[in-house]
Amino acid sequence: MLFKFFRHWRDSYVGIPRTIWFLALINLVNRLGSMVIVFITIYLTKELHFGIREAGYVMGFFGAGALTGAFVGGKLTDRFGYYPVQFWSLIANGVMLILLLPIRDFWLMCAAVYLMSLTGDVFRPANSVAIARNSAPENRTRSISLMRMAFNMGWTISPAVGGLLVATLGWTWLFWIDGITCIAAALTLRWLMPPKPADKIVETPDNKEIVPAVQSPYRDRPFLWFALLTMLNAVVFMQFLWTVPVFWKDGFQWTEAQIGLMSALNGLMVFLIEMPLVHRLEGRRPQLSYARMGLLMYVAAYLSFELPLGASAVALMFIIFISFGEMFVMPFSSNYVYGRSAGSQQGQYMALYTMAYSIANILAPLFGTQVIAGWGYSTLWYLLSILAVVTWVGFWILDKKTSKPKMIEAESAPTLEPSPQTVL
Questions:
Q1: Is the pTM of this model over 0.70?
Q2: Distance of alpha carbon 318 from alpha carbon 303, whole angstroms
């Protein structure tokens, strides 16, 4: 049985293009330093002594920066190509992370977090376009999962290391290592994928991938509804980043090291399970049906906090459900976006999808912290469960209405031949 699992796990990686592996390695280097985002709420409340409401406002600026960065990143990607946007975003984000360290003033922190988030999220649409243009329809969901596996391998390591760093050496090393790894990721990009001439739009008559008849994402009404539902889904999931660590700290009296290790379990599960899971499920059902399954797992995750069990058992149940929910929602919803985007507007499709998460980055910490401050953690868990069910219904309706969307074959639409972009 174990041998069969590992054989299936190995087979799930077959056929993924070499460039996707390079992009995954770059994302792994970047994610290995992603310690600040795990502990930022704790840093603001425990180290800088901001109130929980103030911390929520700071994280609202984080979301606003992410929203701006996603929009700008999509425009820049369509204008200059995915390569230079990724490179300079990583450099700028690394510098901003280091500059956060000496700031103590509330409003300066809001401004700095905004800029840090903006520079970081310019990267996302460019990276998504890079994945789309270097993978084929038959292996795209697995390419997305490989990228997420790189994220989650880093997520497995960085929270645990970050928690131990804070516990032993203090907060300074957290910001320096995060910033340096961003810059290292940019240098890895330049080393593995030297700049070449920009992509050219070419006709590919043998390409059977379907793309939407409406080429602008802002006029693609089903996609706009999808983006709205994605935002609601992200508000639910992102409480794992913003408020659950604070609950573990306040409710369970856990140390930063314990919080980091439990958070790392999420990354480990996704790393081990997502690729073979996607390999088995890919192409069997519509993408949004899997996203709906994941939303039900989110409900189970948050309601597990209300069970009369010990702290470790409850936290473990939460991690298991939230991790499986993530594995069902994220790769398949991402592939839904790739299936609706093509040509010169692709960067803006990816930007709009990223913007949905960016808006959630504004709303999630504000929503979570304000509910906690006013009504407590239990109310938050129930409200998140209701919101997940509402989103499930929305995806079900969208799936029914777009099961046979008005589409055109890619023979009449240009696609792009993959090649890295010229660096500015």
A1: yes
A2: 8
